[in-house]
Design goal:
Layout lengths: L1 H19 L5 H17 L11 H46 L6 H18 L4 H4 L1 H12 L3 H30 L1 H18 L4 H37 L10 H18 L3 E9 L1 H8 L1 H19 L4 E6 L2 E6 L2 H5 L1 H13 L2 E3 L2 E3 L2 E9 L6 H17 L4 E4 L2 H20 L5 E9 L6 E12 L3 E3 L1 H10 L2 H22 L6 E6 L1 H4 L4 H12 L6 E5 L1 H5 L3 H7 L1
Parallel strand pairs: 6-7, 9-11, 11-12
Antiparallel strand pairs: 1-3, 1-6, 2-3, 4-5, 8-9, 9-10
Helix pairs in contact: 1-2, 1-8, 2-9, 3-4, 3-7, 3-8, 3-9, 4-6, 4-7, 6-7, 11-12, 12-14, 16-17, 17-18, 18-20
Length: 553
C-alpha cells in the first residue's frame, strides 16, 4: 500500500510540473513532499515477513538515484523560473519606457507588444514552434542597433526564449527519468514476492522496515541538498549572473528597507548612478565576450573602492548603481567618486587587447533630492546624463535645474513630433565666400524652428533631441530635399553656385535605405550630385562604419 501511495505522489508531482509549465507551485510541491515523507515514515511500522531479495535492493538503489536526480531537476526548474520571472518583469518595465520614446513608431510598438504577448502565450502552454517568436526577435534585432533599450529588450527576450527551451528540456528529462515506472516495478516485485512468501510475513515486515529506512536516509540526504539549493536559488534570483553583484530586484528591495528605516531615524544616504562611456562601441566591435570580461573587471574595481559597507548593484548592460551609507564617505563624496572614476579609467588587458574606458556618474541625496526609490533613481539618472552631456569621464550632482531641463526636453520631444507636418521648420542659407575674390562660391543650409508654443528654438536644443528620438532621420530628408530644391531655384534664376552644403546626422547613415532615399531626392530635384557637399557631425567620426563610408562614396 505504501509503494502505491509513493507512485501516486510521484505522479502528483509530475502533474504539478506539467500543469504549471512555466511556473512552479511551491506550496503544492511542498504539500506533496510532506505526504511522500509521511508515507515513507509510516512504512517503518509495517510488519513484513520477507527479507528483500537482491533484485529488490537493486530497484531501491535505482529509486534513490532517480529521486535524487528528480529533486535536482525541480530545483533547476525553480532557478530558471526565478530568472524568467525577473526578465519578464524587466521587459514590461522596459516596454513602458520605450513606448514613451518611440514617437509613435507603430511598427516597433506592435513588435514589442507581439513579443510580450507571445511570451505570455508560452506561460499558458502554447508550443514555441507555433508562435514563431524567433521571427519576431529577428525583426527586433534589425531595430535593436539604433537604441540601447531596444537592444536590451532583444537580449532579454532572446534569453527568455533560451530559458524556456531549457525548461522544456527539463520536463523531457523528468519524463525520461521514469521514476514512477521504477516504483511500479518495485510494487510488482513486492506483490509477487508477497504472494510467493505468504508464510513469511514477519520477514516481509522487516524488509519493508529496511525499505522505509533506506528511503528515509535518501530523503534526509535529499532534504539537506534541497536546503543548500534553496539558498542558491535565492542567490540567483537577487544577483547578477555575470558580475555576481546584486541585481535590480535586490537593489530595489534594499532601497525599500533603507528608506523605511531612515524615514524614522532621519539618517541620510547617497545614490550613485554609474554609466560607462563608449562601452557599446567596444562591445559591438570586439564582441560581447570581451565586453563581459570588462564588466567583471570594472565591477571588482568599483566594489573595492566602495568597500563592504556600501551597496553596489548592476542594473543591466553597462549601468551600475551604488548606495553610500557611510557618514565618512558622504562627507567626502567628491573624493570617493573621483577615486571611482580613476579606477574605471585605468587600462585593462583583455585577451590580446589593451582597453580603457571612462564613466559618467550621477549623484542624488536622500532625503534632499527625493524620498522614494523611484525619485532618487530618476534624479541620479538625470545627473548622470548631465555628466555625460559635459563630455563624460566626470560626475554631476542632481539640482532642481536638471528637473527643469528634463521638463524642457519633454516639451521639446512632444512638440518636435508634429512640428514637421505643421510646417514649423524653415531653412536659412549662410553664404560661403572665396576669400581672394570675394565671390560667393556656395551656401550652407541651416535649419531653424519656430514653434507657436515654444517660440524660436535653437538648433543646439532640438538637434540633440531629434537624434535621441530618431526624428532626425525624417528631419534630415526634409532638409536635404529643401536644400536641393533651393539650389535648383537659384540656378533657374541665373544664380550659379559651386555647391550647397548640407549637414547629415550619423544616425541617418545607419538606415539601410539611406542611399536609395538620397538618390531618389537627387533624381527628383534634378540637381547634379557634384554640387552637394555633405557635412558630418562629430558623432560620425566616433561611430565610423564601413557601411556609412560606402553610402557617402
Amino acid at each position: 500500500m505504501g509503494v502505491v501511495k509513493l507512485k501516486s505522489y510521484n505522479q502528483d508531482m509530475d502533474n504539478t510540473l506539467m500543469r504549471s509549465y512555466r511556473y512552479l507551485d511551491n506550496d503544492q510541491i511542498t504539500k506533496i513532499t510532506k505526504e511522500f515523507d509521511r508515507e515513507l515514515l509510516a512504512l517503518r511500522d509495517n510488519k513484513m515477513h520477507e527479507i528483500f531479495s537482491a533484485k529488490v535492493s537493486d530497484l531501491l538503489k535505482q529509486i534513490s538515484q532517480k529521486y535524487d536526480i528528480k529533486i535536482n531537476l525541480v530545483e533547476s526548474f525553480k532557478t530558471l523560473n526565478a530568472r524568467i520571472t525577473s526578465a519578464v518583469y524587466y521587459l514590461y518595465e522596459l516596454q513602458k519606457s520605450l513606448e514613451q520614446r518611440t514617437n509613435g513608431n507603430i511598427q516597433i510598438e506592435k513588435l514589442l507588444s507581439d513579443i510580450l504577448f507571445k511570451i505570455g502565450q508560452i506561460f499558458i502552454g502554447r508550443e514555441l514552434k507555433v508562435l514563431h517568436l524567433d521571427e519576431d526577435l529577428a525583426s527586433l534585432h534589425l531595430h535593436s542597433s539604433v537604441d540601447k533599450d531596444l537592444d536590451y529588450f532583444y537580449r532579454h527576450s532572446k534569453q527568455i526564449l533560451k530559458d524556456v527551451r531549457l525548461l522544456n528540456t527539463l520536463l523531457k528529462e523528468n519524463e525520461a527519468l521514469a521514476l514512477g515506472d521504477t516504483i511500479g516495478s518495485l510494487r510488482v516485485l513486492l506483490d509477487h514476492e508477497s504472494q510467493r512468501n505468504k508464510d513469511a510475513e514477519e520477514k516481509i515486515g522487516l524488509a519493508f522496515f529496511i525499505f522505509a529506512l533506506i528511503i528515509l536516509i535518501v530523503l534526509v540526504h535529499t532534504y539537506l541538498k534541497v536546503l543548500r539549493n534553496r539558498a542558491e536559488v535565492f542567490y540567483l534570483a537577487y544577483h547578477d549572473t555575470l558580475t555576481k553583484l546584486p541585481n535590480r530586484a535586490e537593489f530595489e528591495r534594499y532601497m525599500d528597507v533603507l528608506i523605511a528605516k531612515n524615514d524614522k531615524n532621519k539618517k541620510r544616504f547617497i545614490v550613485l548612478f554609474i554609466d560607462l562611456d563608449r562601452f557599446k562601441v567596444i562591445n559591438d566591435t570586439l564582441g560581447h565576450d570581451v565586453g563581459d570580461e570588462m564588466l567583471i573587471i570594472l565591477a571588482t574595481r568599483i566594489a573595492k573602492v566602495l568597500g563592504k559597507e556600501n551597496l553596489l548593484a548592476r542594473l543591466g548592460g553597462d549601468e551600475f548603481v551604488s548606495i553610500i551609507e557611510n557618514e565618512k564617505n558622504m562627507d567626502t563624496i567628491d573624493i570617493l567618486v573621483a577615486e571611482i572614476t580613476s579606477v574605471i579609467r585605468k587600462p585593462m588587458h583583455i585577451r590580446e587587447y589593451n582597453l580603457n574606458t571612462s564613466a559618467s556618474i550621477g549623484i542624488a541625496k536622500y532625503p534632499d533630492d527625493g524620498k522614494t526609490k523611484s525619485m532618487l533613481l530618476k534624479h541620479a539618472d538625470s545627473a548622470m546624463y548631465k555628466a555625460k552631456d559635459n563630455g563624460g569621464d566626470t560626475y554631476a550632482f542632481y539640482t532642481k535645474e536638471l528637473s527643469v531641463n528634463m521638463q524642457r526636453r519633454l516639451e521639446l520631444e512632444q512638440e518636435l513630433v508634429h512640428a514637421l507636418e505643421k510646417e514649423e521648420f524653415l531653412l536659412h542659407y549662410q553664404p560661403q565666400y572665396h576669400l581672394a575674390t570675394g565671390k560667393i562660391m556656395g551656401a550652407e543650409a541651416l535649419i531653424r524652428w519656430h514653434s507657436p508654443l515654444l517660440g524660436n528654438v535653437s538648433p543646439e536644443e532640438f538637434i540633440n533631441v531629434a537624434e535621441d528620438t530618431r526624428f532626425i532621420v525624417e528631419l534630415g530628408y526634409f532638409v536635404f530635399r529643401k536644400a536641393c530644391e533651393s539650389y535648383m531655384q537659384w540656378k533657374n534664376q541665373g544664380i550659379e553656385l559651386n555647391l550647397i552644403a548640407i549637414n547629415i546626422s550619423s544616425i541617418q547613415l545607419r538606415q539601410v535605405d539611406a542611399f536609395e532615399n538620397f538618390k531618389k531626392i537627387i533624381n527628383e530635384t534634378g540637381i547634379d550630385a557634384k554640387h552637394i557637399e555633405i557635412e558630418l557631425t562629430e558623432r560620425y567620426i566616433m561611430e565610423y562604419a564601413t557601411g556609412k563610408s560606402t553610402i557617402l562614396r
